[in-house]
Model the fold of this input.
Amino acid sequence: MKQSATPAAAPDRSAAIQGILLVTFAYSLVGASFTANSVLGDYPYAGGQAIRYGLAFLLLLPLLGGRSALAPVRTLTARQWVRIGLVAGIGMVGFNLAVLAAERTAEPAVPGVFVGCAPVVVAVLVPLMNSRRPTKPVLYGALLVAAGAFTVQGWGRTDTAGILWSVAALVGEVGFAVLAAPVLKPLGPRLLTACICAVAAVESLVIGAVVDGAGLVRVPTQTETLALLWQAAAVTVIGFVAWYMGVQRIGTERATLFTGMIPVAAALTAPLVGAGSFGAAQAAGGVLVGAGAALGSGVVALRRPRSGNPPDGEEPPPGRAFTSAERPSIPSGDQTA
Done:
């Protein structure tokens, strides 16, 4: 495809910049939430998740635009509802449960390092789902991001159970990024976030009823209340909506590159509660994450063919005109799922 010389290419670059800013902001909120997590260690897990996602759903309802905005929900197929259930179960409730279980026998850095590999998995998995080769700049950028995440967090003590639960957390992170793509287009970011929050709240209640019984919930302390409000309003409502808005603009592969912002943001905010420090390793890791995200997102290009055509198997970088088949907002192989 030839480089577009018309003004139509400009919105693509603008949309790409918006997408990069949105996913960076979303992942920064998630990273900052680790500080909130540190004060919820004694609160019942499933009950806390049910409160978080249930409250997020209620906060989203006034933002949806009335009953007419709910019309797309009635058109969802059973298969699409299954996907929503999987996003909630694997990518939200399951992910948080896996991280919690991993940290029982492993230091927090261990699941963090595994989750930091999510961009590499997505950079390979999404192209395979669409019957094409991995995009080289995205794959190279993902490797840099994973290296940066490892540098920020380091490695810690663990056992087999800790590693297995950390792998489960990685699966949850990848599932959250990939599974929702086919339902993002018909629902949009806000309605999709509301749906997965409602389902996640129900799933959490079921798990809590089975595991904790009468101890499912308790009255939170003032600090726990503030942490739950932060997770519901900032991380879930604002963060999830911003994430899906970013995915619409730059695609799942490139959006997941910014997962590396999670440990960077966590390292920056940890000193606020005396849970860690920000030193040379964290700074160096942050540079690697930034370099990988810039390379993979198309902000920095390793090479650009003179003809303006992308190398075989690669998507055009931001600012280039896309055909309907090349536009990365929704993986083409998932549109009919």
Q: What stands out?
A: Residues 80 and 184 are 10 Å apart (CA to CA). Residues 222-256 form the longest helix (35 residues). DSSP finds twelve helices and no strands in the chain.
